Amino acid sequence: MVNFYKKIKSLFNILFLMLSLSKPLSRIILFCSGLVILWILPTANLHYLPVRSIYESFFGFKPYSSGITRAVSRLLHGDITGAWNFNPLVYLVIPIIFIILVKDINYLIRTKDFSI
Hints:
The structure is a single chain. This protein has 116 residues and is mostly helical. 69% of the residues lie in helices and 0% in strands. It has one domain. The model has no long low-confidence stretch (mean pLDDT 84).
């Protein structure tokens, strides 16, 4: 039974280390898996989903990050105007994500440090 708890604890540690984005390998895995998931999801019907924003509900203004996930998904599907309509900052976010990915891949190639 103690061995089972040690395995569960080690799995949680790996999960939290991945989600912390503290290492280049964890950033590569999470960013690439997020982009693949957004690329696979059919975004033509996602605009029907209700979007709840705490900032819009309580403070009455739309934050800058509102709609960025749907905009990235639209851009990955080739809908340039749809991405712009959801959030124009998507054209700033996508290059930043790719710069971070290239920097992290370059770091992994140079150092061969594949720890999570």
